Amino acid sequence: MEENFKEFYASYKEQIDEFYFQLKKAKERYIQHSFIMAILLCCIFLVGTLGLLRISVTTFLWEIIVVCIALFVVCFGSVFIRLKPVLTKMTEKIMLDIIKYISGDEQAKFIHNSMISQESIADMELFNLDNLKYTGKNYIAANCNNNAMNFADMEIYYYKDKIDEEVFYDKEGNRQVKEVVRKVKKQVFQGCYISATLNKKIAEHIYLIPNNIGDVIINGKLNDYLTYKGNEIELENLEFSKKYKVYSDNEIQARYILSLSLMEKINNIDDIFPDKKYIVFKEGRRFAICVDGIQIENLRKTLLPLKRREDIVEENIKFIFKRLYNLFDIYNILDLGDDLYV
Amino acid sequence: MYYIITVIVILIILLVIIYNTMLSKQNKLKSSYSSLDVMLKRRYDLIPNIVDTVKAYAKYEQETLERVTSLRRRADECNNSKELENVDREYNGFMNEVNLLSEQYPDLKASENFVNLQKVLAETEEQISAARRTYNAHVEDFNTYISMIPFNIFAKMFKFKKYDFFEIEESEREVKISME
């Protein structure tokens, strides 16, 4: 990863120069706007107070000065607020360039406002969308060595009724208590959805449910949240069995897909994503991994500093690069390029 | 008297439960054996294709080809895992020879038929491996169950016997279809 980053960063310096040139221009423009705005506001204030209200300058001199300074501070402070979207756009561009570099796909997409389609989530047949709601953002699509990979932030949740007591007083002034039903949002999953093409054909759905699901599903049955089906299958890899429960209607098919080597590879995903993971092998050749706790949005919020400082710039870009590299590393860890049996 | 009847009823219920569990485990085992058998036979069905492809590109002893062709017939006649294992061993030996031969005849190695055949074989091998793992897991489960006290007593009573694992020797584990 280190070498890849160094190579990327070395080739990206010109682009960073360009970013800071654009940022400087935007900064100058916003400062000019803010200055004019502050002058205008001060003029309006002075005309209003001195001209219309006929307030004596000598009596309220300090107050007038303080108000004018405050107006200037507010106007100049707004420059930083207005520059934030510019910095965010820069980060989005950096993310897209990193995605293109890692995947080698010039047509790769990164769309902040898009999410994995409802159909894809339903097609996974993992989360029970009859009871749960789904939202998401930061959709990434890239062809990594002809393997169509998708990533996106995903949140699965439901609303639970919570009964609260509300105190009120009636017309006669007596204290009354009534029960109010409030909707409380409960999260089942928040993390990253990763899907790719497997190098084997799958005839059935195979579900890998994390063993420590209990802390998510506190009340109710597991089937209220997850729609996995089939019999539980005990596999040979003890480390793997400690982490996942495997469900499928076809045991031989499950063992065919979850070969000894693939189980080992799935164990290795823990090195980069130690949190809970749900894995579904769908009919056909697609599979999806939902990794709890990973958020592409956190990368989008990693902004470059307003004033260029090489060490901070490099550190921030390295942070984004490392996280995206880890996402795409699923391809290498699971040997998805190996299409022997397809 | 009342207590004795209660104990007898409980014992009968226990016996029925144990018998049904053993039977269910044995049925699962038999079902996984037949799946393994089907997959092995599917592999032997590919033998004529391999023979045809090899014959087209390489010189091969007629005797060996006949011996290999007979594997398919013998696979159909197998009744237990030991017999299947023997046929399987012979087949692996044959595939080793084919792989060696493909190294000697570049035309054979490059032929589209041979490459496609190798892909099908590689996939079939993986499926057989999965079926073998499934069968062995059921054998282990069944054998452990009927070895435990007090189930071993009932297993003897109902004449349930341990099953053999479907094993491959260490040298055969290394038999792989070369895809390079």
Describe the fold and architecture.
- The complex is a heterodimer of chains A (342) and B (180).
- With 342 residues, chain A is α+β, with helices and mostly antiparallel strands.
- Chain A has 2 domains: 87 residues, no CATH class; 170 residues, no CATH class.
- Chain A contains 9 helices and 9 strands.
- In chain A, a hairpin with a 2-residue loop joins strand 2 and strand 3.
- The longest helix of chain A is centred in the first third of the chain and has 51 residues.
- In chain A, 25% of the residues are buried.
- Chain B is an all-alpha fold and 180 residues long.
- Chain B is 82% helix and 0% strand.
- In chain B, helix 1 runs parallel beside helix 4 and helix 3 packs antiparallel against helix 4.
- Chain B is rod-shaped, with a radius of gyration of 23 Å.
- The C terminus of chain B is likely disordered.
- Classes of the chains: A alpha+beta (342), B mainly alpha (180).
- At the A-B interface, helix 6 of A face helix 6 of B.
Concise synopsis of the structure shown:
Chain A has 342 residues and is α+β, with helices and mostly antiparallel strands.
Q: Would you report the number of β strands of chain B?
A: 0
Structural class of chain B: mainly alpha
Count of helical regions of chain A: 9
CATH topology of chain B: de novo design (two linked rop proteins)
User: In CATH terms, what is the architecture of chain B?
Assistant: Up-down Bundle
Count every helix of chain B, treating DSSP H or I runs of 4 or more residues as helices.
Answer: 8
Question: Which descriptors apply to this entry?
Answer:
heterodimer; A: 342 residues; alpha+beta; nine-stranded antiparallel sheet; 9 helices; 9 strands; 46% helix; flat; B: 180 residues; mainly alpha; de novo design (two linked rop proteins); 8 helices; 82% helix; disordered C terminus
Q: Could you outline the blueprint of secondary structure elements for this entry?
A:
The complex is a heterodimer of chains A (342) and B (180).
Chain A lengths: L1 H51 L8 H43 L5 E3 L6 H7 L8 E12 L2 E23 L5 E28 L3 E5 L11 H4 L5 E3 L4 H6 E5 L2 H7 L2 H10 L7 E5 L2 E9 L3 H5 L9 H24 L9
Chain B lengths: L1 H44 L1 H11 L4 H16 L3 H24 L1 H5 L1 H36 L3 H7 L12 H4 L7
Helix pairs in contact in B: 1-3, 1-4, 1-6, 3-4
